[in-house]
Amino acid sequence: MEVSSLGLGCMGMSYHRGRIPDRKVSIALIRKAVDEGVTLFDTAEVYGPFVNEELVGEALAPMRKRVMVSTKFGFNIQDGKIAGLNSRPEYIRAVVNQSLKRLRTDYIDLLYQHRVDPNVPIEDVAGTVKDLIQEGKVRRFGLSEASVQTIRKAHAVHPVTVVQSEYSLMWRKPEESVLPALEELGIGFIPYSPLCRGYLAGMLNEQTKFYAANDNRAGLPRYTPEALKLNRPIVDALVDFGISRGMTPAQVALAWLLAQKPWIIPIPGTTKAAHLGENLAVADLQIASEELQELGNVIAKIPIHGDRYTAEEQRRVEK
Ligand SMILES: NC(=O)c1ccc[n+]([C@@H]2O[C@H](COP(=O)([O-])OP(=O)(O)OC[C@H]3O[C@@H](n4cnc5c(N)ncnc54)[C@H](OP(=O)(O)O)[C@@H]3O)[C@@H](O)[C@H]2O)c1
After folding, report:
1. Please, are residues 264 and 292 in contact by the beta-carbon 8 Å criterion?
2. What does the domain layout of the chain look like in residue ranges?
3. 228 bridge partner residues
4. What CDD domains does this protein map onto (predicted)?
5. Which of 11, 192, 251, 290 has the least C-beta neighbours within 10 A?
6. Nearest alpha carbon to residue 232 among 207, 252, 211, 204
7. pLDDT confidence bin for 6, thresholds 50/70/90
């Protein structure tokens, strides 16, 4: 799979990132990203639910063949609410048929299992996606927040193209075992929340009021006023690094990710054209990899306050 150096995370245009912009603005933003060379667009059934896939489908319909769309199944959505996980084969098939309609397409370039379902063997999930690929409805298979053991089992049934998990200067756990396994197996990696849900861009602080009706940060331990204040030294390190190089903290955070491996494709989310331009510009900056690694070493020594997820959400990600 070949894609642009950065993809676009579309979730925040409808879900979990505060006030929802006018639909026309988001459609124009997605199309602007295409014009600027982005070829990977990330959504999921659960974003909304459903409405984010509809938005992405409408925005990309005129340029569908030029881009790749990734979406995800795995949550049990009942009456518009999440009721646990569901990766039973018949449910995956039903979700994919609905996603295809919402995305206004007859194939999904990359289909992820969003969270591993402990009640369904991963081999059955991989087998179902394999069948969907043979039927032409899906092109590639991905996993999200899966353990190395699960990745290996799935990969044995059908090649996994990429794994998508949280990864940023404030969440480096994938380095422990997932990234080495992916390198061994030749699987790509898509860091989600590469700006730590906006924190690494330096615009959030203890005064920030999250729009709780549609912003999951309002309930996450890392975004309490106290944690936002205590974690400031991390942002300060990015500001210091960027100031002499003409980079914003968001750009430094993304440049660090790009410097890790050539097969790592971050998908920062944004609702604003100015932020899109700022984020995409990183791919053309020439920053010595050693300098970025040194920055990573410095930041790794700074204690991080507040868990990234609540206990319930943490249970859904494999260790
Ligand atoms: N697989 C999974 O379980 C999973 C989980 C979460 C997310 N994702 C995917 O990953 C994508 C990105 O994740 P995310 O939204 O959680 O986190 P993120 O990309 O780390 O951060 C997005 C936030 O950063 C802000 N931002 C972006 N660029 C900025 C800039 N240059 N300057 C200042 N602020 C900036 C955005 O606000 P503005 O709108 O104001 O720019 C937005 O609130 C999602 O869209 C989704 O596709 C996947």
Report:
1. no
2. 8-315
3. none
4. AKR_AKR13C1_2
5. 290
6. 204
7. very high
Mean pLDDT along residues 187-203: 98
* Mean pLDDT to the nearest integer, 171-182: 98
**C-alpha 18 – ligand 1 centre gap (Å):** 11
Structure token pair of residue 61: 């319909």
Q: Is 216 exposed, middle or buried (0-12, 13-18, 19+ CB in 10 A)?
A: middle
Both tokens of 262, joined, read 């050539």
Three-class DSSP category at 9: strand
C-alpha span between 108 and 100 (Å, rounded): 7
| Segment 292-310, tens digit of pLDDT | 999 999 999 999 999 999 9
- List 15, 47, 167, 199, catalytic entry: 47
CA dist., res. 182 & res. 108, Å (int): 22
User: Count of residues for the chain?
Assistant: 319
- Measured CA to CA, the distance from residue 21 to residue 190 in angstroms comes to 25
Residue 198 in contact with ligand 1 by CB distance below 6 A:
yes
| Distance from the alpha carbon of residue 94 to the mean position of ligand 1, in angstroms | 28
- Indicate left, alpha or beta for 16 from its phi (over 0: left) and psi (-120 to 50: alpha): left
Domain 8-315 annotated CATH 3.20.20.100: yes
